[in-house]
Amino acid sequence: MARGFLLERTVMEELEQKLNYVFHNPALLSEALSHSSYANEHRSAHLHSNERLEFLGDSVLGFVTAEFLFAQHPDLPEGDLTRIRAALVCEQSLYEVARKLDLGRYLKLGRGEEAGGGRQRTSILADATEAVFAAVYLDGGIAAASALIHRCLLDAEKEEVVEERRRDYKTTLQELVQRQADQVLTYRMAGEQGPDHAKTFLAEVLLNGGLLGGGSGHSKKEAEQAAARAALEKLTEK
User: Fold this and answer.
1) Strand, helix or coil at 195?
2) pLDDT tens, 197-223?
């Protein structure tokens, strides 16, 4: 029992180094990494899953991001600020943070979730990231949580990625094509690759039935946007 505790503490200290934050109450970090499947398998130990922390972390993340964007972009209207915030705090962004921290390595999963590839599942990793933000907030206050979120999400490079992600290539392509009469754009799914927990979707965009561009993404919507972007590049070259 003591050896297991020491082993877990050593692993948590490794994660603390990556977070650049040392917990006063390590139990908060342990809870943030406990998936509901693990908590359900250890009910006799009265363990809590990270779902409540995820709920709180979502609000902490939203506030810190809103405050940052409000100060960083004094001339942007509310609608643009809302769109940038949504892109910054989306599941894909949080998943990228988790991957950078190798958060999947530290998760506590039930046997079924472990066998099903839960350590790589986008939704589980994104939720755990929010839970970790909440754990830091409860342990060290808003300043500590804000510092972590800034390090993970709110740097200049990340904002450039967000600006790219929030562009609506489908609408831009539609507006370009409609400059000529009787032009018909359609999208179709061309396939999908990878396991269920990490699928990549392939999409194609057709102009009057002819292939104009193709793209891929982690969702059908993302794949269609990528296809529209490729089509725009092709039309621009012409």
Assistant:
1) coil
2) 678 899 999 999 999 999 998 888 888
Active site residue 130: yes
Catalytic position from the list 130, 159, 204, 224: 130
| The token pair that represents 171 in the structure block | 């609408």
Delimit the CATH 1.10.1520.10 region(s) of the chain: 2-166
Q: Which fold has domain 169-237?
A: Double Stranded RNA Binding Domain (3.30.160)
User: Cα–Cα distance between 63 and 118 in angstroms, integer?
Assistant: 29
- How do strand 210-217 and strand 185-193 relate by DSSP bridges? unpaired
Active site residue 58: yes
Taking only the tens place, the pLDDT of each residue in 15-53 is: 999 999 999 999 999 999 999 998 888 776 678 899 999
CATH of domain 2-166: 1.10.1520.10
Domain ranges in the chain with CATH number 3.30.160.20: 169-237
**Residue spans of beta strands (DSSP E) within 22-72:** none
Assign residue 181 a region (left: φ > 0; alpha: ψ between -120 and 50; beta: otherwise): beta
Task: Please answer whether residues 177 and 207 qualify as being in contact, where contact means their C-beta atoms are separated by less than 8 angstroms.
Answer: yes
Q: Which of 58, 91, 192, 222 is catalytic?
A: 58
